[in-house]
Design brief:
The structure is a homodimer of 143-residue chains. By secondary structure, chain A is α+β, with helices and mostly antiparallel strands. Chain A folds into 2 domains: 13-86, Arc Repressor Mutant, subunit A (Orthogonal Bundle), CATH 1.10.10.10; 99-141, no CATH class. Helices cover 31% and strands 27% of the residues of chain A. The first copy, chain A, has helices at residues 13-22, 29-39, 48-57, 64-76; strands at 45-46, 81-86, 89-93, 99-104, 109-114, 119-121, 132-141. β6 (119-121) of chain A pairs antiparallel with β6 (119-121) of chain B, so a sheet runs across the interface. Chain A binds a DNA duplex (25 and 25 nucleotides) through α2 and α4.
Amino acid sequence: MSSSGNKKPVFNEAALADQLRSVGLRPTQQRMALADLLFGRGNRHITAEALYSDALATGVNVSLATVYNALHTFTAKGLLREITIDSTRSYFDTNIDEHHHFYFEKSGRLEDIDRAHVKLTRLPEAPDGLSVSRIDVVIRVDG
Amino acid sequence: MSSSGNKKPVFNEAALADQLRSVGLRPTQQRMALADLLFGRGNRHITAEALYSDALATGVNVSLATVYNALHTFTAKGLLREITIDSTRSYFDTNIDEHHHFYFEKSGRLEDIDRAHVKLTRLPEAPDGLSVSRIDVVIRVDG
DNA sequence: ATTTGTGCAAATCGTTTGCATCTGA
DNA sequence: TCAGATGCAAACGATTTGCACAAAT
């Protein structure tokens, strides 16, 4: 009973705290716990509600508002990437490298596709010399 | 003051009615008027609220619920394609051919990219032999 | 001490639903 | 006639917001 919840953090607390500080965020208890759930268990594609459930399930005490707060703050600081695929909810992806997704329509699950497996050619220029901020490829499969 | 609104329908009424009947839909006044707004002015990427405004502005008498109804029914019948890009609203695309999109982040506007201008290679197999229902490519630009 | 973050509950907003009434074939 | 459509208003669900309180520097 030394850390912030029932489950031991997967990441070293000091390292997590440094990561948060390095992007200008205070390593509060809630953010530490959420960051641990997000980044301490491999790549995840998670919704706010799901992360909230995860937190409750592991004994972490946070409010839903704080979960939304943390997800948006992390996204703004580049620690997460927001994926919009289903208009009823937002997914947050812990993989911030350039990559793409399979979307399983029935289950609502997302799966990463490495950038090396999708090659885009003949891409048109962005109109008016605007710069491209991101290219998303989503392969929808009926599972 | 002979047709269903202030603005003359761009499409021939009989042709529109046939198009609706051909997919098993009754050509009601509301559906005819909405179909005309949707298909009678070139390709459009429109939200439910925007179509509703359009309808009101052209003197067409429909409820918002009917607009949603029509958009979903048309989509189910293959006359429209629903595009999810922004989690706060759904877009409906009158272009049902395979193609992709530019998304202008500031204005929220969408623009078609012909399929010929995006070539995907090295596509991974869909897992578990599931079939691919659709591939969406969205190029986000900061305009 | 000051700034930043958190939690609660209420508010928002796009969308959906229930149900009574109308309409097209 | 009568299945299918429409309209209204209430319900919904994810997300956001206002504001008082707590925690971090």
